[in-house]
Amino acid sequence: MYGKAFAPEYQGALTTLSVNSSLTDVLAAGTEQLRAAERAGKPGEAARSGLAVAEAHRRLGRVEDADRAWKASYRAARQASDVAAMAWALWSGGTLARQRGAFRLARRLLQLAADLGERGGDIVVRGYSLAGLAETGRIQGDYEAVGRLHEQLLAEARRRGEARHTVWALEGIAQMHRNTGDYDTAYALFEESAEIAARADDRRGHAWALRGLADVVSVRDGDTERALELLSEAEATCRAMRLSSALAYNHKMRGNVLYRAGRYAEARALYEQALAEFRAMSEPRGEALSRLGLAKSLARLGRDHAETAAELAELSGTLERIGLQHARRMVARAYDELGIPDARVVEAGPAEVTR
Known about the structure:
Strand content: under 5%
Oligomer: single chain
């Protein structure tokens, strides 16, 4: 049995904020409390309020502001000798590093956060940090290394009845099944996560689950209109909560759905929109994946093969520099799909990673 979803990153005077609070509201409240704590000389409260500020900036796509905020939160927590608050600040920094494509830094910060969380007796931040490590590995395509950790964290979340973390773990496991071609299992897991999120009033988790369902409905069933309906429902939540990154990934997925349906001009427009959104928030992984979709759409619309081949080669290098292990396989599939000769020796691999 799961209780209502809560946001443990909203701490101190901000615990009354909901997991579904608009990020602009979170930022305003967090900034107000942070300034009050600083004036009162309360570094512990400044650290807790600063965490909410950092997370609001990160989710709004304001990466430089988020970077300054989590570091300030960490310094305040250290001044207050608050080990758990230090762990939360490092978790925020590690999550931001992953969002920016700095996976090595993300793993280092998240491991430090997990260690400090254990030392400080905060099992929630420890769990969130381990989840961050698992998600980092999954995004990079290292499923064997992180699959067991996802399952372990799912079991722990179920045991404690933590809806939000259960939804996260289910969606991560579902994504791995989707990317390896087990669409039925992926659909069932996304469906369960959507149901739990809806009952727990976790609108962010529900939006991600709908996006996953839309992907499977599109690739497995070829049901374009149902997939677009699911994405529209998820988009409404993203807009209401100002979830900039989630909204950009929603637009990229809409491009994927339209591309699969042969609606290449529409897909091109969505990939261009997503690309602009990812660039605005300095999110290199989303930017590269949008560029790949755009290149494929342009090729279908008559772009010169040599230009497409050159862009695919550049994208392959970009994705490998970011640290995505599946990059060569993704590009190989694009060459093959478009009928463009590829002089490089590239191994075949699993389906396109979409999150």
